[in-house]
Design a protein that fits this description.
single chain, mainly alpha, globular, DNA-binding transcription factor activity, nucleus, XnlR_reg_dom
Length: 353
């Protein structure tokens, strides 16, 4: 299908704006990945130049998107490419605009009620399910990032009924990781709804504490299931291992965000407040391990990690640990904070926007 889009864009004048977005976006990522992976200086420069050219074409195409769009699979794919690009360009509000439209189209196409694919399902159904899953994941993550109500409500979705079977019920590592990502996204949405929405903030501290404990129980259970993926150690390559390590950082960051809602003014939860600091420290330590695992390889993987694990959703551990340093004068955490700041500086140098 992608080859067909490329042929239409490069050898025809009848291509759609959505095809141009798909081709320009995917090629920009492919060239950037090749540039980061190659050791040849001239080859790297050529790949980077091609990537920048495709990014410029993508930005132009995105700026011309109409307000009213036809509800088609191609439109939905183009919006996901645009939202992903906006996230990586540190423009979450722009990403929210596109993912909001994507959720509208996915519901118009009834993707939220399609049965989960299995081994007997055709390729098209697997692609459609994956696209809706990505729409769901981005919608929930950006909801928490921007403090807005999610566009996709869980009680309207039947496509993810198989998630209740847990991660181990699926065989493929990729399927397990997709299931994990959807489950984390669901908890991100519930965290906003139950702890950070306007109605949740107005609740009594005792009620918010109870909700926080329930969310944490679900999150820790999910983390335990994620660790079971590493049992198949021989099946995991370097990228798979880094991917799971990055997901663990995301889970710990979400746990920190949940624990932050427990106010220290309550004597009964004073220990929980200190536990928040412990989880935040573990997240920063996990971040350090991720950086150590990534750096010997290529900068493209490092940039992906920073974009999606640190910038895509709120990375509360850094704030929690930094505030603890100011309050207690304990400087033992400064080493991990220094690594965190250095990584963000690297990201800013690469993309000043």
């Amino acid at each position: 299908a992608f080859t067909g889009h490329c042929v239409a864009v490069y050898y025809s004048t009848a291509y759609t704006q959505y095809q141009l977005i798909l081709v320009a976006g995917i090629l920009s990522w492919k060239f950037a990945y090749r540039a980061a992976a190659t050791e040849d200086h001239l080859d790297r420069e050529a790949m980077e130049e091609s990537s920048q050219m495709c990014r410029a074409a993508l930005e132009t195409a995105l700026s011309r998107l109409p307000l009213h769009m036809l509800p088609t699979l191609e439109t939905l794919q183009a919006l996901l490419v645009g939202a992903t690009y906006a996230i990586e360009a540190a423009k979450p509000s722009r990403a929210w605009e596109m993912i909001s439209k994507a959720t509208e189209i996915s519901q118009a196409l009834e993707y939220h009620q399609m049965p989960p694919p299995d081994r007997r399902t055709g390729t098209t159904e697997h692609i459609t399910f994956g696209i809706f899953a990505m729409t769901y994941i981005l919608d929930k993550g950006l909801s928490l990032r921007l403090g807005r109500c999610s566009n996709l409500r869980d009680h309207d979705i039947s496509s993810f009924a198989h998630l209740n079977q847990g991660l181990v019920s699926t065989r493929s590592i990729f399927q397990r990781y997709m299931t994990l990502s959807i489950s984390v996204a669901r908890l991100q949405g519930e965290t906003y709804d139950q702890l950070y929405s306007a109605s949740a903030v107005a609740l009594q501290d005792k009620m918010r504490h109870s909700r926080a404990q329930e969310l944490l129980a679900s999150l820790w259970k999910l983390r335990d299931e994620m660790r079971s993926l590493r049992v198949d150690g021989d099946a995991l390559n370097q990228e798979d291992s880094v991917m799971l390590m990055a997901e663990d950082v995301t889970i710990l960051s979400l746990a920190t965000l949940i624990l932050r809602t427990v106010r220290r003014s309550q004597d009964a939860v004073e220990a929980t407040a200190y536990r928040c600091i412990d989880v935040a420290r573990e997240a920063l330590e996990g971040h350090r391990r991720c950086i150590t695992a990534i750096e010997p390889h290529n900068s493209g993987t490092l940039e992906l990690y920073i974009n999606w694990s640190l910038l895509y959703t709120p990375f509360a551990p850094a704030i929690v640990v930094f505030c603890n340093v100011l309050e207690t004068g304990d400087v033992s955490d400064l080493a991990n904070l220094k690594i965190f700041v250095a990584n963000l500086r690297h990201r800013c140098d690469a993309h000043p926007s």
